[in-house]
Structures are given as C-alpha cells and as structure tokens.
Design goal:
The complex is a heterodimer of chains A (285) and B (347). Chain A is built from twelve helices and no strands. Chain A has 285 residues and is mainly α. Chain A folds into two domains: 1-33; 47-284, MetI-like (MetI-like fold), CATH 1.10.3720. The longest helix of chain A has 32 residues, at 57-88. Chain B is α+β, with helices and mostly antiparallel strands. The chains are: A mainly alpha (285), B alpha+beta (347).
Chain lengths: 285, 347
C-alpha cells in the first residue's frame, strides 16, 4: 500500500465527518438560502431570501447588535488580557497558583458561565439581593438591568469572562518567550516604563493579540447560546434571529434563516481568511 | 566622562540561597574600558543589569562620580546596555532602531535623521538605514546595536559579550571598531566576556570573577605576569604549576633550585611560569637551566606545543616552530626558566 493511500485511509474517518457533517450542512444551508427546498416544492433557486433579509430593518439591527457584542467584548477582553499577562509574567509569591486560577475558566463551558451570570447579575440575582439587603437600593428590581438588557451587558460580561484567559494565555506565552530584555534595551535607551510598553512590547506582542482576538471575534459574532440565554428579546443577536426564523412554524421563513446563517459564516470566513493570510506572512518573515 | 564606583555589590535571586554576585567592588576610572571576565553563570551579566537598573540589587551600591544611582530609574541613569544578541526591534528599520533613544527624548525628526546619518557613518554602515534588522548580517546588526547605544551619548556604555556571536574575521574588525570609538568618544565602558583573549585585547583593566566573587582586578598584563592564584593563572592559560618552598631569592622544588625575582612570596608555595616564556636550550650563565626530556610535540601552525618531563614533573612549552624544528620526541634537552618569568603563588 502506498504511503499516500495509507495516509488517506487513516484520515478517512475524520474527513468523512468533516465533509458530511460540516461541508454537507453548509451546502444544504446554502441551497436552502437560495430557496431550493424540493421537499416543500421549491425547486427554482432564487435570491428572494437575501433580498428579504437585506430589506428588513430587523436584520440590520441584529447584525449591528452582533457586531457590537463581538467588537466590544473582543476589545475589552484583549485589553484586560494584556493587563493580566503583564501582571502574571512578574515574579511574585503564589504566581503559579494565580496563573492556574486565571486559566481555570477556560475549562468551564460557556453555558455554565452564562447561568452563573444569570444568577449573579439579573434583577433577581445574588448581587441585586445583596444590594437591597445592604440598602443600596430599596428592592432588588431596582438593580440596573445587566441581563436581557438592550446593551447586552450580560452577554459581553460572559464573553469577557471567558475570553480574557483565552487571549491572556496566548499573550502571556508570547511575552514569556520574548523575555524582558527588549524592554530593558528600550529603558536603557531612555524610554519610560510606559514608552517601553507602547513602542516596544506592544508591537512585539501585537501579532499574538491579533490572532487570539480574531478567533475570539469570529466566535462571539457567530455564537448562539449566550445571546439566547442572556440577551434581550428585542433586539436579538443575529444567530438568535436566525434560529427563530429556522424554528418558525412557517417553513417559508427557513430560507431567510439560512441566508442569515450564510452571512454569519461568510463574515467569520473573511475574518479567518485575513487571520491565516496575516499569520502566514508573519511566519514567512 | 564618568567615574564608576561599585561597592560591595551583591545579588541574591529570590528563592536562591547562594548569591549570584558576592560583594563585588570595583573603581572604574573615567573613560576607561573595563572587562568583566569569567565563566558563564558567574554574575557578569547580573552586574551589568544592576548597573543599568534592569535588576534590583540585594545590597551594595553603584555610584557615578560619587553619587549613588540605585534610586534612579533606568532611563535616568545615562547608562546604555548593548545585549549579546543585539535585540534590534524587528519591526523597525535600521534608522528607526538607531533613532529610538532620541525619539524617546522627544528630539525633532530632522535632528534625529541628521544624527542617525552621522552615527551610521561612524559605525561604517552609511547606506543601510532603510533596511530591516533581519536583512543584516550578524556583524552589521552588532554595529547597529552599538550605533543605537552611542547616539544617546551615554555616560556609561555596557556591552554584553560584544564579540562572542561573530566569526573570527569579524571579531577582529569589531574589536578595532569598538576600541577606536571608545577611545575617540572617551565613554566609560564596561563589557562582559567569558573569553580571556577578548578581555586582554580590548580592555584597559580586567576584573576576573570566579564563583560569583572578584578574584583579581588589574591590567591585562598583570594577569599573565602576576596572577593572584592558581585558578586565575589557569583561566589565563597557565599550565605549569610546581609546588615547593620559596626561600629568600630561591625556589626549591622538583625542578631544582631556581632563582626568583626579588619580590617573590616566601614559604610553602606554588611556582608558575607561562609556556611561552620557557626558553629551549641553556643560557650562557647556566642559571635556572633544567635538564629535561621531550615527551610530546604538536605543531599548531603559528606555534609548536612541546611537553617536557623533569623527574615526574611535566612542563608545557610554546615555541616558535622554526626554533624547535630539529627536536624529536625522546630527545634530552636543557630548558631555561629565567628568573623574571617566574611567579610564586600562595598555596
């Protein structure tokens, strides 16, 4: 048996899953987004679903909300992750345990985190009750709306909680492999602590921050479960809107759901494309 | 021009019981080029980082012109450190790397451009300002790192193993360049090296650090002629150590009774002499002549290494190849250890 065939056969199980489940699903979704659904008699592909979503205000509002959630949580997470990495790379007593705790919630599923946010931050949650107990507010319902709110604070909180260690671990590894000598050179050449960070460390860790945050952005833009649990009814994040259309009793709404899913996949793909291109260029250089 | 005083400088890293540098004291004159010499891990780079303010001290003091600088921030000390692996900022051009220190001092762009151009001439890289560091050879990167340090006119320049990453040809060129620039600008310079030859050819004075402690601080010549102990002599290529008794003017040992210089130590001691100072053959007065037998001869190109034996004592000799062409292993041969080439070490 030739080596090539052997490799192909060894990879066959995973390739089958990838092709059938992922690409197959994507192909069906794409076909349905073009109104091709022979089971309900739609056999002539058209772009009606796309026209319909692009002319509906609801789509733009949801798209905007998803974009806002993804950008805000990624930016906040990146800043906090860099700050955390700067602290964690220092030598201090209990560093390894702190690092362990910092990374711990990487292993906690998003859903569990979301339920935690719900218990803590909702108007009937622990913080609201504590605030009322300590007479900071007269009753728990006066607690500021941080869950199911139009500004998606709960969703962003959940993503930040989850993404800070993810980006932080990558940035920390990056900083540790660089060492502190680059900043040492900058300091001895006359840079203040801030200047050494701004002009030397930040440009050096930027590729790492960028790659981690692109992954974080693509995930937060396309994820369904957190906005579904913590988001307001209106406006709904794009994946939630797509899901609602998909489960609509009217089967005719499905192509629109698929068109939205295609738009989410398209934007994620564009992000990943730029990420891969950028990282390849970095590796080549 | 800055006088540097290092007083009892000590560093114990957190979690370590042994000091990485143990009570180092040095007085470095203004404009002097001093080498911190020692094997790796003896605390040389630690010393540099403490002087530069990149590492805290455990105890001791560093003073510039009599003033302690330990409470000054690194950017306020006027000390620039050039690291062994150059650490040029990879995302900046050569010119931007060199101009970095001036930019941090908020010097105007046209002034930066002018001075970068000047300093590029000084380090003999006039046309490379637009290149990226990765497009340069090791020697060129070293020059850029040096230019980046010199452009801010430091009071004290610290060089970490400045020649160790370069090949033999470039080492000579860089050595001349560093020495030349240092002499022209008169910057007090301290450099770290593990290579005694590098220390000798570059430095005005050498501080030998062994086991994290200062062994000897002296002129390069003194390390060859008057090493403080056997470890120091061995670090500088000393091979011949003969135990015996030093009496007034003479040394009695397995080689016989040898005349000593007048300032030699007295008592039970070790006699040392450098392989290159042993003369093959007897001198006219017959003083300090030892009868020996040649047991090994290796041709090294510019020199020949010979090994003689006297009783049980082996003697290493370096000679000019043409002087020892006729000698064959097994030959009996007198050798002369002239009094002024002998040095007595305390036991």
């Amino acid at each position: 048996m030739s080596d090539r065939l052997k490799i192909f056969l060894l990879l066959a199980p995973v390739l089958t899953i990838l092709i059938v489940m992922f690409l197959g699903g994507l192909a069906i979704g794409l076909l349905r987004s073009f109104n091709y659904m022979p089971i309900i008699g739609l056999t002539k592909p058209n772009i009606d679903a796309y026209v319909s979503i692009f002319t509906s205000k609801e789509f733009y509002v949801s798209f905007g909300l998803s974009l806002y959630i993804a950008v805000t949580s990624t930016v906040i997470s990146s800043i906090l992750a860099i700050g955390s990495a700067l602290l964690l790379r220092r030598n201090f007593i209990g560093r390894s345990i702190t690092q362990f705790l910092f990374q711990l919630n990487l292993t906690v599923p998003h859903l569990v985190g979301a339920i935690g946010i719900l218990y803590l931050f909702s108007q009937s949650g622990s913080f609201a009750r504590l605030a009322a107990e300590w007479e900071m507010i007269s009753k728990p319902s006066e607690f500021p709306a941080m869950v199911f709110d139009p500004y998606a604070i709960g969703i962003i909180l959940q993503y930040v909680w989850k993404e800070v260690p993810f980006i932080g671990v990558i940035v920390l590894a990056n900083m540790q492999s660089l060492g502190e000598n680059f900043e040492g050179v900058a300091r001895s050449l006359g840079a203040s602590r801030w200047q050494a960070f701004r002009f030397v460390l930040l440009p050096l860790i930027f590729p790492g921050v960028l790659s981690a945050s692109v992954i974080s952005f693509a995930f937060t833009f396309g994820a369904f479960e957190i906005p579904a649990i913590l988001g307001a009814n209106y406006p709904a994040a794009l994946p939630v809107l797509a899901y609602r259309k998909y489960t609509d009793v009217d089967l005719a709404a499905r192509p629109e759901a698929m068109a939205m899913a295609v738009m989410i996949a398209l934007l994620s793909s564009v992000m990943i494309f730029f990420y891969v291109r950028y990282s390849r260029r970095r590796i080549r250089n | 021009m800055t006088h540097v005083s290092i007083k009892e400088l000590t560093k114990v890293y957190p979690g370590s019981l042994e000091p990485s540098l143990d009570r180092l004291s040095l007085e470095i004159e203004s404009g002097e080029l001093t080498a911190l010499l020692g094997p790796s891990g003896c605390g040389k780079t630690t010393t540099m980082k403490m002087i530069a303010g990149l590492l805290s001290t455990t105890s001791g003091d560093v003073q510039f012109d009599g003033r302690s600088i330990l409470n000054d921030k690194p950017e306020q000390r006027g000390v620039v450190m050039v690291f062994q692996n150059y650490l040029l900022f990879p995302y900046m051009s050569v010119a931007d790397n060199i101009g970095f220190g001036l930019k941090m001092r908020k010097v105007g762009k046209s002034e930066i451009d002018r001075r970068v151009k000047e300093i590029l001439e000084l380090v003999k890289l006039p046309d490379l300002g637009d290149r990226r560091p990765k497009e340069l050879s090791g020697g060129q990167q070293q020059r850029v790192a040096l230019a980046r340090a010199l452009i801010v006119s430091p009071n004290v320049l610290l060089l970490d193993e400045p020649l160790s990453n370069l090949d033999a040809h470039l080492r000579l060129e860089m050595r001349d360049l560093i020495r030349g620039i240092q002499q022209d600008l008169g910057i007090t310079t301290i450099f770290v090296t593990h290579d005694q030859e590098e220390a000798v050819v570059l430095a005005d004075k050498v501080a030998l650090i062994l086991d994290c402690k200062l062994k000897q601080y002296d002129t390069p010549e003194a390390f060859y002629r008057r090493p403080i102990d056997e470890a120091t002599a061995r670090f500088f290529g000393g091979q011949n150590f003969v135990p015996g008794m030093s009496k007034s003017g003479y040394f009695e040992c397995a080689l016989g009774r040898l005349k000593l210089p007048s300032d030699a130590l007295l008592g039970s001691a070790t006699l040392t002499f450098r392989p290159e100072n042993v003369k093959i053959g007897a001198n006219s007065v017959g003083e300090n002549v030892v009868q020996s037998k040649l047991i090994d001869k290796i041709y090294l190109g510019t020199q020949t290494r010979l090994k003689f034996i006297v009783g049980d004592t082996k003697i290493d000799v370096m000679a000019n190849p043409s002087d020892v062409q006729e000698l064959v292993v097994g030959d009996a041969c007198p050798i002369t250890l002239s009094a002024d080439s002998l040095w007595v070490l305390a036991k």
